[in-house]
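Deviation from plan, reported transparently: adenosine-5'-diphosphate complex.
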Amino acid sequence: MPDPRFAKFDYPGRLIAVEGIDGSGKSTQLRLLKRWLEQQRLKVYLSEWNSSELVKSATRRGKHTNLLTPTTFSLIHATDFADRYDRHLVPLLRAGYLVLCDRYIFTAFARDVVRGCPPEWVRSIYSFATLPDLTFFFRTNLEVSLQRIRDSRRELKYFEAGMDLKLSSDIEESYRIFQSRLLEQYLAMSGEFGFHEIDANRSIEVQQHEVRRIVAAHIPLENYVA
Ligand code: ADP
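Because the crystal trials were delayed, the predicted structure below was used instead.
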């Protein structure tokens, strides 16, 4: 049954999204999936959850001066997403591509709700978007994700650690609290949106095998040959 809260269309393309907290390994899995699909000579495009040029400077200015409220923060990100959605994702879906999204609207739902926006309000803001054909939720324990980020020696960023929420003055502690709240939101959304949950505490290879099996079972890949 299609979810009446979101746009529905009959474009030939298919949308596959990956979600999960930082360090859950979703980008790694999506890149491997992309390579596998390309090896089969399929039409594939990978889209990341980055700011578009349209709102980048506004977002940056607002973030640095702490001028944004949960509502304005949410609306700026929604505008940003709408720009990418209309200019990139929809044309590719219309052209019959397998569009792989590294994070999708569920990322906004989780973050905005943790920042204090009402869940139904956030969902209604994104009602112009279609739901993915497949959404993978890479479910890790918080400590596993944290360790992966430590191992990759990547610096924690201010907003990824939720420092704007003043949860703790220690960035790692803030990160831990913020990410555990995001994880709670993902768990709550899993049933609501029919996520395919992947136990992401396991090895890269085992997970990738499962991801490929699910994709092949749900999407007639032979229809997407370039
Ligand atoms: P995300 O996109 O969810 O933030 P990444 O795919 O960037 O996560 O992975 C974060 C780090 O963890 C990277 O250094 C990556 O090589 C490593 N990694 C990813 N998956 C696994 C795994 N299953 N086991 C161990 N390390 C992993």
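The domain at 23-224 is CATH 3.40.50.300 (Rossmann fold). We consider this an acceptable substitute for the interim report.
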